[in-house]
Amino acid sequence: MNRKVSLIGAPTDIGAGARGASMGPEALRVANIQSMLEAHGLEVADRGNLSGPANPWLPPVDGYRHLKEVVAWNRAVHEAMYAELALGRLPILLGGDHCLGLGSISAVARHCREAGKKLRVLWLDAHADFNTSVLTPSGNIHGMPVACLCGHGPQELIEIGGTVPAISPKVVRQIGIRSVDPGEKRFVHEMGLEVFDMRYIDEMGMRHTMELALATLDEKTHLHVSFDVDFLDPDIAPGVGTTVPGGPTYREAQLCMEMIADTGRLASLDVMELNPALDIRNKTAELAVDLIESLFGKSTLMRA
């Protein structure tokens, strides 16, 4: 794993249905994400926060809320993530709402194309985020980034990575899904997205789920993890705007992160949708940092 890490704050809730995710980057810093990473021998550069348009909090237009502002933020994220990858560093995007996964993953995909690498994206989330303007009940673009990455969305968004589609659905593994809109469900099936929903995890266990999600990784694979904090059960992670009961437990989440770490392939990370306004004494941010520590090699015992 790359030992040079860059933190990039994206303080916006532009694509969300609740205010507050804009405070997520600072909450993660307050929870000592930088010192935790440094304690594991990583060289950490905090690049500070990106800037972009304020949230105008307007109703949807033609099925999209705040499209112009979402485009601006995603362009900023794309350029920042791409610049860190070009420097040979491991970027961690501190969100911000999950619409920013579009800018982040399109930058990773661009880097992989230029470096001749394969891409695997693990989308840890309660939601499939595969809506379109036709399917969405809300117009909130944080429900659309995976669809946009796969080429289904407004021209201004799907072209951000320079290639349309930015990725194939085949590179994505979605884990922890338990809330999908009816039309979105059909679209996920049509596109062949690989989804390990909570029923699958209940029946087969997190270990088997992660073995499949991580299968066929090799030294030419760039592994990107897009971690939406609402992936976790809200009993342990209340600080998100779109809680869905029945998510992974603390131990299931730890196993997920530890198995990712075991691959040694993690090369970029998003930490999204943390909403301190809905949290209890920064509990969710501290849990997120604890899980990120496992992603970077924390384990109970020495393991080969």
Automatic annotation (TrEMBL):
Residues where Mn(2+) binds: 98, 125, 127, 129, 228, 230
Pathway(s): Nitrogen metabolism; urea cycle; L-ornithine and urea from L-arginine: step 1/1
Record's signal peptide: none
Gene3D superfamilies in the record: Ureohydrolase domain (3.40.800.10)
Any one biological process term the GO annotation gives: urea cycle
EC number: 3.5.3.1
EC top class named in words: hydrolase
UniProt cross-references to InterPro entries, sorted A to Z: Arginase (IPR014033), Ureohydrolase (IPR006035), Ureohydrolase_dom_sf (IPR023696), Ureohydrolase_Mn_BS (IPR020855)
CC terms in the record's Gene Ontology section: cytoplasm
Keywords linked to the UniProt accession: Arginine metabolism, Hydrolase, Manganese, Metal-binding
Keyword Hydrolase: yes
Record GO terms (molecular function): arginase activity; manganese ion binding
Cofactor remark from the record: Binds 2 manganese ions per subunit.
Record family assignment: Belongs to the arginase family.
Protein name: Arginase
Organism of derivation: Rubrivivax rivuli
